[in-house]
Each structure stands twice: as C-alpha cells, then as structure tokens.
C-alpha cells in the first residue's frame, strides 16, 4: 500500500475507506442474512434471489478462486515469516525465472511454497480428525493474538521512538495528483485491494446462519460489531507502523520478497529479540487464521455436493470423526495448486476481484427482495437504504472495471476460474436429472 501511494496519510485513508466501504456492504448484506439465515451463507441466498446456476457459480468460485486462494495466501504469510527466522532453500535464478503461460512462476520462492503446502496439509489433517479440535485451537490462538496486537500498539506509540513527522512526511518518490486523476484513482484502488484482503471474511459468518442462536438478531449484530472492531484494530496497527518508521524505510521492505513490515517495525522498537517475537506471533496468527478458513469452507462444498452441484464424494462424512473428509482433501489439493502457480500478490488480487462480484450481487439482492418479497419478515433492514446499498454496488462495479484495467492478469485468472465450472454444472445437472 505504501509502494503505490507513497504517502502515510493516503495509506491510512485507504484503510479507513476500505473499512467504511466494507461496513456499507456489511450493513446492506446483513438484511439478506437476517431474512435467509441458514448454513451455507450466500449459496443459500443466491438460490432464492437468483437461481441454482448463479448459486453454483458462487460455490465453484469459492472453491477455485476465493476460499482456496484465501487459505493459500494466509499460509503463504506463515511461510514468509518462518523464512525470516530460518532461511528456506531456493533454486537457481534460471529456475526461479521459469514461467508457465508467461506469468505463472511455479519455481520462484520454492522453499516458501513447499512449507506453505506442508502447513495446509497438516491443518487439513487436524480438521480431518475432528472439527472440535480445530475450533478450540483457533479460539486459543485468537485470544493470544488480540492481546499481542494491543501490546504492539502500546509499545510502538510509547517506546518506539516514533514521530508525527513520520506520519506527515511523504515518500521521496511521491508525486501529487488531483483526486480525479486516473493515476491517483488507480493507485487508491490498488491499495484498496490489499486492504480488502485484510478485511476479507466478513461475510463468512453467513455460512453458519443455521447454527447461530437467534440468528435474525445476532447475525447482523455480529457482522456490524465485528467490522467496527476490525476497522479499529487495523487502523491502530497501521498507524503505529507509520508512526514508528518513515515511509521510505517501510518501502525498502517491499523490495525484499520475504521480509514483513511488522517484523521490521518491532525490531526497530525492541531490537532483534522483538523481531523474533513478532515473527513468532505472525506464525501463530497465520496458523490460526489458516486453520479457521480450512475449517469453515468445506461446509459449503458439502452442501453443494448434497444438491448435486459438486463432486458427489464431497458429501461423504467420516464414520468416526464426523467430518466432511473428501471436501477437506479437495480443498487442500486445490489450495496447494494455487500456491505453486503464482505469488502472494497474484493470489490476493485475484480473490478480491472475484469476491466483489458476489458481494455486489448480495447487495443487489436487497433491492430484488424488497420487490419480490415485500411482506417477508425483516428483523433487520439495511441502514441507509437505498443510498448505502446503492453506493456499495456502484463501488463494486468500479472496483471490477479498474482492477481489470490495472491488473488484467489477476482479473482474467479470477474470471477463468469462475467460469471453468460451467461445463461441470451442466454435466452434474444431466447426471442428477
């Protein structure tokens, strides 16, 4: 984000803007969630708002581009942090530069990629032998992580030797542009893609709608309060980074593939042992986050398989562990393929592009359901309707067009993976007719 914006103020603005826009989506989509609360989240919504084909496209895109890429990218950060502690092996420059189709780089950063795949495999096995074990593991890590983030913010703002001058000083390569300039707009949207990856996951609670007590009340409440809490944490953390280090010093981190900004900041505050501590924290954080994503997503593929819209064996449940074993295995295999295929930035940009197609579709459903189901009970009505939902839809459209213009490769990857499921859909429909 610092690389594309070159300004601490603009970086913080991007975090706020991404949070507000995500909150707009949350406030809008919570109406649909409260009306149609059920396990399966958007998959259930889309069947009722649109049709089975669109619901299938959503589920298939989650498998090929969104949830699997989320697992791959979060696990990737784990391996990068591990690499900052113990250097992982790499291949020669000739091998690292080898490409497939001109843009896929399977051998680049190979040691990090292999560790990422090993992590995905290990956590998949953890959830394979018992969902409760995986759930408790994630809860324990969550409590530890929140406490550690709070400690980093306090230490950074009190003992970090930071300065308001760092917040007010732009990068040496900063060039002022008007807010309507196409270069500025593309830069802001590029930064927003990164911020949206951090906010990603706000809609996943909808998958558990059928299992939440008093879902009509607690589902929208959980979405809104959760988003506000996350916005506060992210903004405070990133303010601390930019307060402690000049932006040019942070930009030097971007030039090193496996160096992480948080590690550099904490090393500045506490020395080498602090860098070791934050690296360990990132290992624990991403371990828990990867585990949570692996835990939640197979519920969707299991539900699709039971309706004849996914590989039939994905509905199998282990007789002893009572887990969707095949759905977990398929997810792990495809996430590993994505890890090998590209880089961290490719994965995150692709999954955000694909995600916002469906976020906008859910918000559009607010307008559709107001017309088609006007008398249906609405325990929660979208705040600021129709302005807030309309703003979010327009932003989703703008994000898709600008991403396609500025990052066509990642956008095309998302679209190809989305529509690769169309032949499967018609085959499964024929088989199950």
Walk me through the topology.
Blueprint: H1 2-5, H2 8-35, H3 42-49, H4 52-85, H5 93-96, H6 110-128, H7 131-158, H8 164-168, H9 182-199, H10 215-244, H11 247-254, H12 261-270, H13 272-296, H14 298-306, H15 325-341, H16 344-372, H17 387-406, H18 408-419, H19 422-431
How would you characterize the overall build of this protein?
- The chain is mostly helical and 433 residues long.
- It has a single domain, classed as Up-down Bundle (Amino acid/polyamine transporter I).
- Helices cover 73% and strands 0% of the residues.
- The chain has 19 helices and no strands.
- The termini are far apart.
- The model has no long low-confidence stretch (mean pLDDT 85).
Number of domains: 1
Structural class given helices, strands, pairing?
mainly alpha
Outline the biggest β-sheet. Answer: none
CATH 4th-level superfamily: Amino acid/polyamine transporter I
Instruction: For the record, give the distance between the C-alpha atoms at the N and C termini, rounded to a whole number.
Output: 49 Å
How many E-type strands? 0
Mean pLDDT figure: 85
Helix % is over 70%
CATH architecture: Up-down Bundle
- What is the general shape? globular
The assembly state of the depicted protein chains is single chain
Our count of helices gives 19
Instruction: Write the H/E string, N to C.
Output: HHHHHHHHHHHHHHHHHHH
Global Rg: 22 Å
User: Would you give the CATH topology?
Assistant: Amino acid/polyamine transporter I
In percent, how much strand structure appears in the residues? under 5%
What is the CATH C level class, in words? Mainly Alpha
The low-pLDDT segments are none
